[in-house]
User: Fold these one by one.
Assistant:
Number 1:
Amino acid sequence: MANFKININGKSQNVDVDPSTPMLWVLRDHLKLVGTKYGCGVAQCGACTIHLDGTAVRSCQLTVSAVKDKEITTIEGLSENGDHPVQKAWLEHDVPQCGYCQAGQIMSASALLKRNPQPSDEEIERAMNGNICRCGTYTRIKAAIKTASDSQIA
Amino acid sequence: MSKVRTGIGRRSFIKSVSLAGGGLVIGFNWLACKRAEEAAGKEVAMQMPDEWFEINGYLKIGDNGIVTIYSPNPEIGQNVKTSMPMIVAEELDVDWNNVIVEQAPLNTDIFTRQLAGGSQSIRQGWESLRMAGATARQMLLTAAANQWEVPVSELSVEKGIIKHKNSDKSIGYGEIAKAASQVEVPEEVELKDNDNFKIIGTSRKNVDAKKIVTGKPLYGLDVQREDMLIAMVVQPPAFGMEFKSMDAEKVKDMPGMVDVFTIDTYPEDMEKEWSDVAAFSKLVVLVGESTWQVMQAKKALKVEWELNPELTKDIQILEKSAGLEDASGLESSEFHTSLMAEAGSKNSEVVRRDGNPEKAFKNAARVIERTYTCPFLAHNCMEPMNFFANVTEDKAELLGPIQTPEYAEKSINKRLGFDLENIDIQMTRMGGGFGRRLYGHFLVEAAVISQKLGKPVKLVYTREDDMTNGVYRPAYHVKYRAALDGNNNLTAFHVNAGGIPESPLFANRFPAGAIDNYLAESWTLKSNISVGAFRAPRSNFIAGAEQSFLDELAEEMGKDPIQFRLDMLERAKTDPVGENNDYDASRYAGVIKLARDKAKWGKESSEMSRGVSAYYCHNSYVAQILDMSMKDNQPIIDKVTCAVDCGIVVNPDAAKNMVEGGTIDGIGHAMYSEMSFKDGVPQHENFDTYRLIRHSEAPKAIDVHFVENGIDPTGLGEPPFPPIMGAVANALYKATGKRYYDQPFMKAQSILG
């Protein structure tokens, strides 16, 4: 066990865990931030996607010891009132079915739009291909990303 | 307006009120409620009421007019948590903006069929949900009439405001709710005519959407309790094996670990429910303080396994009779394939025979025979199996994702010996169901573990545990034969269907009833791999196979595939063969025509490869036309046009979402997904090798159209899923010149390259 000071959603947090613990479980078990989901544990489904210094990463593969002074953003910290353009677009298109994968989808989509505010269809597909949705909401997700893209430009 | 007897007597009503009291709300504080529209993202300022008045078990009204409606059925992503309360709100005549929705816990005294399965929630809840709203409305009106000393017939109500025709009197539901809660429950209530619907048939956003997109705790895996421990299981590595021994001492000393032991979830003498499906009853359990710590201990634990002679003896007999040298009783996919091919080549149990099919085949000018297969599938709900249990000396509290809470309660009653009133089952929102969570062994496991520890426990399956646990979609095999005469007329049809361990045959569905000489046969093979219902059970294979065969048959007969189907349906409508035809030929033809017209069938560009398919299941009709093109030798699905007849559509945009999702899910499973076995060991245990459809493989556009016929609603969660597999196969043929008979189609990907 070791003590780690990490910056999550703009707040400094202390956790006492094994250095090998993935951020996924630090968030969920120790910090009670359960918006980040467990889906596969092997970086294949994208449900656990968070931002590390603004880039989408799979938190199941990011050990707590590797974070150091980088800034972590989770779905809970994406916006203060749930009004990030991507979240608003998700509501407008009423995207979720079961909803379990959607936090990860939103984190991947928001990171994409940050680095590429006007992605093409192919760029959206490439950026989102690591996020599985068993319910099959892919067409709505793509439409919502386009809406969010447009709203950022407007 | 139609008068309907409520069937709610005074006695049962009083019972309902007492059961639906304050405790119900307190129990759900952790899923803190929000108004329906606010939850969907609208900013609305509204105070919570100071006092709530229970009107009936489905709803309560606050003194300020806010209404809480309990959604009775489990929410697995089919959106009943929005659409069921919409039906109550419709008859209640309340402003949807003033509605809060809460998930009801299991309560068999108030609700019937609290189950997510068979696409039946809306269909079977339709009347009771409407009556719950209408009864409450009637009581509110009666209370206002009493207060004003006027007849009820002089009152009208709109959006929760009652008005008196002959004066300027008006009163809100909130102000009269207290008096209404004292009113005698009416024996008859009037239900609205469909023309007067104001909420049903209008799109309302998912009531949990805001919580979903902001990452609020909603799911079983999100449950947190003080002093809660994390439990995980280790199950045998192969179907047919069982626990022998383990060396747990070192693992018990690992950081955060509390205990390691074995359980027997379903002892042999326990009377099981249908939902108690579990391939592995005896499990190793690891318990610790945090998920990661238990995962590490799980990896380090050494367990010895051995063959279970009870499970493997029947398979050994099969293996020996097939001449296998190594008759271990542990199954492999290769063995399954050869067994099914052999079984499918023989005559089997005749389930239906019309006319004289044998003679027609004998006299045929041509016989067309094709065989179709599909593999086992894992459900792969994105949220792996899990459950929270807190079992004390005399009470069992269970909270988590379960599609069958009523049966789970019975299982707990049998397993722990607790009376039903001491078993409290509450449902979280579920990260997918698809049939997997009908089988609540994980709930029983959690309860047994909690009881043994005397502590609250959250049982967590890893993805690997989830994918290798069984309860799979069975493997199926079907052979179709068609007899054509010298003029290319279809004279006989033969379906011979089977599977491991169940047959996919629906002998009385189309094309039965449309052909004079018809033969349907069915067979099954034993297995020790556990299976369960998987989105549209049996239909999820036989629809695609049948619709592929009809496509090939139409081509052989020189007919347009849509006109061929419509001609057969016309025959089934005007001069049906046999009496037990399980479909309405007019509604069936209706969706095909609607899809044909919307997709502008026959007018597509020459570069577009089109496949059509249609099917009837779960009381609904779906036709799909799929447009495909090839890019770099890979199929691209440009568009799918869907036509659906599910009667009245309660929540149109959400219903479209469901059809889009079912379509994509169906394409994915037909093209990519497969569970295979070697010596009883599942060969895929995570998404690195088990393929699910991904973003880039989804259709570029899906166009959904509903038939408007005013018929009471039927199923929607399952019906769009099975037929699309046929449309995929038929479009692939057009695009590649090759027919695809064996799912998953992209296993034969090299053919395209």
Number 2:
Amino acid sequence: MKKKFDFSVLARSKVTWAVVAEALILLVCLFVRPDFFSISYQPTTEMLYGNLIDIVNRSSEITIIAMGMTLVIALGGTDLSVGALVAVSGAIALKFLRWDVTIYNTPGDYTVYPFILVLVVPLAVCTLMGLFNGFLIAKADIQPIIATLILMVCGRGIAQILTNGKQFTTQYSPFRVIGQGSFLFLPMPIIITAIVVAAVALFVRKTAFGTFVEAVGINRKAARLSGINAQLIIFIVYALTGFLSGISGMIYSSRIMSNDSNNAGLNFEMDAILAVVIGGTSMTGGKFSLLGTVLGSIIIRTIVNLVYYFGIASEATMAFKAVIIAVVIVLQSEPVRNYFAKHSKARQNLVSGGARG
Amino acid sequence: MNKKQYAGRQSLMSRILNPKFIMVYATIGLFLLIYLFGALAYGDKGFTTLRTFMNLFVDNAYYGISAVGMTMVLITGGIDLSVGAVASLTGMFIAYGTSVLGLHPLICIAFSLVVGVGLGLLMGWVIHYLNVPPFITTLTGMFLARGVCSLISRESIEIKHEMIDALAGWKVNFMQLKDGQWVKVKPTAYFNFNVLLFIVVLLVGMYLLQRTRFGRNIYAIGGNEQSAKLMGLPVGRTKVLVYGFNGLCSVLAGVAYALYVKSGWNLSLQGAELDVITCAVIGGTLLSGGVGYMIGTLFGVLLKSIIPALITFNGNLLSWWGKIATGLLLLLFIMIQKLVVSTSGKKKAEAKG
Amino acid sequence: MPENNLLEMKQIEIQFPGVKALDKVDFSLRAGEIHSLLGENGAGKSTLIKCLTGVNRKDAGTITLEGKEIQPQSPQNAMELGISTVYQEVNLCPNLTVAENIFVGRQPMRRGQIDWRTINRRAKELMARFHLDIDVSRPLSYYSTAIQQMVAIARAVDVQAKILILDEPTSSLDDNEVQLLFDVMNELKAEGMGIIFITHFLDQVFAVSDRLTILRNGHLVGTFGIHDITKVELVTQMVGKDMDTIFNLKRASVAPDAPYMLTAKHIGAPGQVDDISITLKKGELIGFAGLLGSGRTETAEMLFGANRFTSGEMELDGKKAEVKKPYDALMQGMAFCPEDRKRDGIIGDLSIRENIALAVQARRGFLHPLSVKEQNKLADKYIQALGIATPDAEKKIGELSGGNQQKVILARWMATDPKVLILDEPTRGIDIGAKAEIQRLMLEMCGDGVSVIFISSELDEIIRCSNRVIVMRDREKVAELDGDTCTQEKILSIIAEGSAAAGGEA
């Protein structure tokens, strides 16, 4: 006998709504402006251009951070400091991209420090800051939201102090590659994001790490009694999130070839958390979906691009974002999902009952 | 354990030494300490004048107004990220309404109140009845308000209206008796409409929290929502109203800010919600809910605003040290709270053992 | 005389998925009476109470209060009808003051404001009635659990209750505090209130109640006047002996020269247990008998590192063992099925497969994952070996019945090939067939050389399975009996009387 597909499972699954939402948004685009989907090749930069490419490209920073945020939220926590870490990462990178001003007096393709420092130091510092968060949460047992609020508040201050409150610029070409280069006809950030997503997915799903995160997020005491070192898991997750914020910060500052401690990563924590929640991972922790998070991040960016495309003020995208997010979140909320699940089941019963009768 | 151990008269002393006030005392103590430091270091530059002190109020009244509502939200165990955006939206309504549409500011303010309180109530409803986390709900509210702000205008709009000018310009100078005559204190110190509004809102907040069932239900919900339900308290209604009240505070904060800068800008007060939360937390309000006092919030606002004042008086430091200092303050307070909680827990264990 | 009854519950039936929680239970309460409700865990006491307080709906039967039939819909509704409940965990707000906890939601008002003076005065008077002279303006959390419990009772009483339900209020009180509570109960009784008293402490039952009702496995055993039953009879009735007929089990046979697997010397921690010494040979099963709260769970948690012991030392397999956290215990070959399966055992949203593989995976570390194939093999093996009733290994463990959840937890630990297995109430609240299977599994493991510590409230299964029985009472080990010669009566008398002399050879 063939197993019948149970639609109530679909109705109850949260990722379903994310897929439906993205599909609907794109459908609207398709009807209103089919050219939204056009993709062209630009031989001078060896890159593909088009709205769809741009959406994925521009969602990179959030997607990368959201990979860590997914795990943080699966543990039942939140990390508010990621946006500030993006600023810190950029500030340090640009600090190490100084050149000898006695030789050149305009920014150009030169630097005094080896490029490897530009890559390593920001990431190391961000990882350490993530560890600081982890320490407050795992060892000092402080609520995640307030523990990470500390770095959120002073992170930008640190970034400003590091650069003496100045905005540095650079034209160093290896650094430009990170945010503006291309590989396989695709913008570099997409490639980096793909690597990060694959690496995180492999790490959590091909080792038992993901299961441990879920176990700790669902029932920390039972997980501990089963021999899981919950503190270690928390440490790793927050450190990883710090590290990923660092990568995101590099991409951001490479795009503008400058550090902007005021605006770099502004509201990134909000967008990352939203991406995770739209992707179907519950704020209360437990089961998580990395795929859902990627989708969530892309949805957010699609809305932004769509609104740009229709020539609406860029800041106003927030209103559209809010409306669509509100719809997704309300649809995902427990009472509504239960309502749908109950009704689709009731309908099924009715149908099968009718067939039998 | 015999009965004697429970004995204890309810004297004024024991009421003052009540452990529930420890965090408030810590805030006040720290404020006095920093103030003393400022007085010693920059006393000669005029740090100790009444003017400097009053400016703490004048320059931060809008934070204070918003912090009153935020304190209530935090006591229920919730959070509201929309306050900055709603305040900004209010400023935009007033600016656009008066300068572009030519409406009377009172109409604009009334409209802002309807929108702000309505949004607050709606968010409260979603949080309680749809069981969506406060963080996500109010974040969406923030995006919405900020977005509408930008839809109205992306340029800063100057507010030009005689009533606004009158309100913004109104101030009462402090006087002193000198040679049998009342003269203004030197350097001049004053309080203005914003300070007055802050004090009034603060007093209303205090009254609600301490003197009404509504206020006490807020504490009960923050202490243990499940218990509050079992005790038969109107949990849902209270939570919705708290977010509504916070919406009201956000609008009033927006009015105060509009009077302060006399313009509306879609990007004004970005990140203000975190400053407001920080004020409440360093004022002794627990983010986990159940604990918080308006008097603590008042000193939290003062504590947070005295840091930039100090940096200004120093003159050599980058203003960014203010952010770092605020972060360190937060850390310090969380650690003190941890300590207080664990020692009071220990006391209990000893009493039992 | 039925017409005197304040409350009458007749033929109450409650059906939970897969199990009949209450089957035609009668219960009555007179005004001015203290009526104890007794039974082991899973007997249906709390289900009966929840039915009365409107938490659970009854499927059949009637409830009459003062001659009128009632249908309590919610705790709030029950309270309005005059039924107040004080739970084991204090259901008050720790951040509010004592006075406020009593009056919150119904504060006396004066000129539109809360009248704090009256609240504090009346709270003080009320507490004085409970012989407590405390500062009612301090937060509840400032006081001990005993006082918090009193405050909860004060609130319950002050809402003009006709019936007061006390659900294990004494489990965290010391003798003086218990006496205080009894004084209050007697005063309330004299005022005509009906009190339902639930406790595990038999001495207290005899000290304070007028009548008692015993439940077992959802059935009514009987209602007795306090003078019509002895302590030993009472325990016998509570524990029952319906197992013998179902399964014929043989105790594990331990070679006389078998090595010691676990030796605990004088371990203890303040506030938990004092000075416990245990030896356990390879392949041996020792039973921990004793009522709830006697310290048996605390001992088990200490051995496994869930709580650290602060004095004494432990040897595992002849080597000194440092067990600071469960992970250490796991790495040294120990396993532990906790008492509260739902709260501390299962990871509800994970599948059966993931739950079974969890401890093995924790031991390997997350960098050495079991492949899904290996996990499936493990899961399938134990689903079959333990007879876990499920369509497949991907079902969420939270959706299984209690007995099957327990088997999954057992499988989680069996998969680690432990040397020492500690089982805390593994058969609680599961049906008789599953109970017998778990006992059989336990003994099979002993046969394979695993040493087992078995904690249970049901004496007959302890006696049937154990090579030795350790009897605990008041957080101390009071006797160690030989499994072959010990009898239910012997253990009962030790538990009831507290004298190790009755059969102690420890």
